[in-house]
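Notes from the 1:1 (GR / supervisor)

We went over the backlog. Supervisor wanted to see one worked example end to end before approving the batch request, so GR pasted a single chain during the call. The sequence is below; no edits were made to it. Supervisor asked that the structure be written out right there so they could see what the output format looks like.
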Amino acid sequence: MIIDYLDPSAPSDVSADLCIVGAGPAGIAIAHAFIGTSTTVCLIEGGGLCGEDRSQSLYEGSSAGDLPLDAGTSRMRVFGGSCTLWGGGCIPLADSDFEAREWVPDSGWPLRYADLAPWYERAREFCRIDPSYGFGPGAFDGPPPRRPLDLDPETLANFVFARSPIMFGDTYRDSLRSAANITVLLHANLMELEAGDGARSVTAARIGSLDGRRGHVRARHYVLAAGGIENARILLLSDSVAPAGLGNDRDLVGRYFMDHPSGRIGSVVSDEPDTLSRPYERTIGKVRAPLSAEIGLTFEAQRRHRSLNARVHPFAVEGQVPHGIRALRDVRAALRSPRRQDEATLLEARLCAALQNGPDSTMVTVQQSLAISAVRLGLHLGDVVKAVAQKVADRPTVRSDRVELVGFFEQAPQRDSRITLGDDRDALGLRRVRIDWRLNDLDRHTWHTTTVLAGERLAAACGGRFEPAPWTRGEAEPEVHGTAHHIGTTRMADDPSQGVVDAQGKVHGVANLHVAGSSVFPTGGWAFPTFTVIALSLRLAEQLRVLLATGLA
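Structure output shown during the call:
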């Protein structure tokens, strides 16, 4: 069932076998795995079914690192989590992403690809990806709709990813609502994980709503699945018994914070720019392709140049738009039903704008009236006829002016890049996060190396000329930003002195507390993290099923 904690008739306290904090993809995947079992589950979500400014404001914090990172716009507090805004990209990590690399300090997972392979299979099913799409380490099997370019095999490779067609909140809401053993609490914000003597186990999750209600969820086992920033924040806030926070005996909670820095590395000017960009377009016509290719550095190139992992995406920038095509676009815009402007829609639009990962657009669009646009369309109908012929031949309807190359980079794990608690407090009275996002020389070396290796080679593929962005040559401040892939704040390690959780996701030293999500990643590769998050979550769900069935604490 789904209960709104703001409803006065809702119980203040709930008991269950398993308490999961956070109804994003990780939390939903774990809860869904228990549907129809004898295990009772309480899934806590601080937001509602739609985005709300009041709930979203609880995510706000401060930034103090090498680059600014806005905690309030880089995630979404809602049932379905930040994947309410995701693009659906799914790809497994490669073998090399799990390995310790001697040129990357603090790299290496306590897992290997083979350990996650069966859970990637289940993640494919959970994400509703066509089962005919096979995969292996680092990629799905192709081919994508358009054949990728032939690349220098010693340096660059095409890595195929699949697209999930679902939004987790929409897809799994009804099944969780109808499950007799699942209780979803909306607008129930976790305020602290209360611990017993010695902080060796969690005794209750203290929850509260923005209207002042307070209560507890008591369970046998607890899972934090609230995201890479909030997982660390919750552990740090849980300091009534453990002054430094739960699981933080070795001062590791919140450390090793990473993202996937992204930025425009340069432009390719060519007489045939679409030769480079078209094979990597993610939309064919008006349909999002179920499989797409990305250009990435080979592991051999990473090792040879002692760099981190990275990918490069070519974005075509339109040249002059023919009068008839512009008129047709204006007519379609005028006929399009106006989009509702409620709070949830406006919030989503604001967050999407903040998370924009393509090159900035300089195009200014002035919307014309329907009548004027229709007249202009009639005067330039020949442009539309030519465009139709181009579309039938699978060619662009508007010639591209150039191609912008945008890099997406793995980040080096470093201890002092971290999440801490600031002095400001939110509407619940809880200390807000302070993000100290740091970059180092290996990060900068990777940006430069990727630019050099990819720029000239991709320009040659379309007979063009590469013009690197000045910052990639050290001639300006780095022009990179985050991509809201929050990684590493509760990293996984067998040795408690090296990580917050063990290889099973259990917090070291706390018997019944587990963590799910990208916060447990020791390193991030370049891969979109959600597919691996779900695989790890389904693996954790199976481990919890065994623990709960056997009565082990």
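Supervisor's comment: The CA atoms of residues 269 and 465 lie 5 Å apart.
Batch request approved.
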